[in-house]
Design goal:
This protein is of the alpha+beta class. It folds into two domains: about 30 residues; about 90 residues, OB fold (Dihydrolipoamide Acetyltransferase, E2P) (Beta Barrel), CATH 2.40.50. Helix content is about 25%, strand content about 35%. It is built from two helices and six strands. The protein has a five-stranded mixed β-barrel. A hairpin with a 5-residue loop joins strand 5 and strand 6. The protein is elongated, with a radius of gyration of 19 Å. It starts with a helix and ends with a strand. The relative contact order is 0.18.
Amino acid sequence: MVGRIKIATVAVITVVVFGYALAFAHHGGSMYDRGRELVLEDAVVVRFMFVNPHARLLFNWEDGDGAGGEWEGELSGSNELVRSRIYSDLVEAGDRITVKGFPHDTIPRNLRLSSIVLPDGREVPLP
C-alpha cells in the first residue's frame, strides 16, 4: 500500500512539474529576441483579431527596397488588453501605423508587439 502511494505521489509531482515547464516554455517569451526591437513604419493593417489566448494583428509592410509581405504581430489576450484599456477598435483594416516589436527566432515575419503608433501619432504601449 505504501509503495502505491509513493508511486502515485511521484507520478503527480512529475505531471505537475512537466506541465509547469510546458506552460513556462510557451508563456516565457524566450522564442522572441528581446534584444532586437524592430520598428516597421507605414505598415497597413489587414486584420485585428481581438481574441484569446493571444490577440493577433495582421499587417502588410514593405522595406525601403520594396520587399515585404504580410506580417503577424502577437499581443496579449483580449482580457489583458481590456484591463489595459485597449479595445477591439484600436485599429481598422487599411489604417497606416508604425509597429514595434521583437522578432520570433524561427518564424519569419512574426513579432511580439511592444507598441503601435496609431495614424493620429499616438503611441499605444502593449502589455
